[in-house]
Write a structure and sequence with these properties.
Layout: H1 2-16, H2 27-37, H3 56-61, H4 78-84, H5 101-112, H6 162-172, H7 195-199, H8 216-222, H9 239-250, E1 268-276, E2 280-281, E3 284-287, E4 293-295, E5 303-310, E6 316-323
Parallel strand pairs: 3-6, 4-6
Antiparallel strand pairs: 1-2, 1-5, 2-3, 5-6
Helix pairs in contact: 6-9
Length: 324
């Protein structure tokens, strides 16, 4: 019986043909994926979470919370857990779409094989447009967006999308506005770790597509509302970074694919700023009605808080106005 069983196994092996081993992977095989999807946030001196993917040594070193790659243990590596969404926020932050299953499998194979270094390779984010024209043709002449002082700009005629503002959020905002961030839980439950989370109106709307002046996020980074954000400033965001985020909101807070976000009609708002003439909050027109509650007798020039809701046109219908 044993002989028959052995014979059957031998025949089955012959019919199946020779087993072709998958070629070994090195960091250089992964560098193009990292450059396209990760380096826009994880590169340069201010890489998000202190994690740079610009070289194998940097990736293996890990970030502020320690190594993200455990050579020989793909399942135990935080990098794989983030790429799969087992740990939150799922990466890359610009998803969905996230990496394809085949791409994640490449990282798993590399880590399981011991994360071999292979030939030297650098994962740099794609070159971007510069003021007055297109990006230089030479990759060596154009630093990655996070190595440069300027944010990742869209090319001429291209709308601003989440791809352009996500690196700013990743480096300066998501360090706190994430689960288990610098302040523990995300402040007020607001997460800046994805397009969906950034625009979520579940508690209240912080981003009003098409209306930067009505967007709490914009008012905080401008310094119109206190405390000014990012909370670890100064330095705060540069004028160019603020302008890029304002333009993103003004153009509809588009997702990574360029699709404008819908207006969160009926969403609650909580805005701070300086009361101006004609029922204005800085540069924002307010809609007061007979049911508006006014507390502490605010007058022009006072710092005030406005609570209200959005109508279908994006107007702020004030429910309560009070001096702070």
């Amino acid at each position: 019986m044993r002989f028959v069983a052995y014979l059957l196994l031998s025949v089955a092996a012959c019919l199946a043909g020779p087993v072709t081993a998958q070629p070994a992977l090195a960091y250089a095989d992964l560098a193009p994926i990292l450059a396209q999807h990760c380096a826009m946030c994880h590169s340069g001196a201010t890489a998000a979470a202190g994690l740079s993917v610009e070289g194998v040594d940097a990736l293996l070193k890990g970030g502020a919370k320690g190594p993200v790659v455990k050579p020989g243990d793909a399942a135990g590596s935080e990098l794989i857990r983030r790429l799969k969404g087992t740990s939150q926020p799922r990466m890359p932050m610009t998803g969905p779409p996230f990496l394809a299953d085949a791409q994640v499998a490449m990282f798993e194979r590399w880590i399981s094989a011991g994360a071999p270094r292979g030939d030297a390779a650098v994962a740099q984010a794609p070159a971007v447009a510069v003021a007055g024209g297109e990006a230089p043709a030479s990759a060596s002449a154009a630093p990655s967006p996070l190595q440069a002082t300027a944010p990742h700009r869209p090319r001429a005629g291209e709308p601003v999308t989440y791809l352009h503002v996500a690196p700013i959020f990743a480096r300066r905002c998501a360090t706190c506005h994430t689960d288990n961030g610098r302040m523990g839980a995300a402040p007020e439950g607001y997460r800046l770790t994805s397009h969906v989370a950034t625009l979520s109106p579940n508690d209240r709307a912080r981003v009003v597509p098409g209306q930067p002046a009505a967007s709490e996020l914009v008012r905080r980074i401008r310094g119109q509302a206190r405390p000014r954000m990012p909370f670890d400033g100064p330095p705060y965001l540069s004028d160019e970074e603020v302008k890029l985020i304002e333009t993103w909101v003004a153009q509809g807070a588009r997702d990574a694919a360029g699709t404008p976000a819908p207006m969160p009609v009926g969403a609650a708002l909580r805005l701070h700023g300086t009361l101006g003439p004609g029922s204005r909050l800085d540069d924002l027109n307010l809609r007061l009605g007979a049911g508006t509650r006014i507390d502490k007798r605010p007058t022009e020039g006072d710092y005030v808080e406005v609570r209200g809701r959005l109508d279908a046109a994006g107007n702020v219908m004030v429910e309560r106005l009070r001096r702070r």
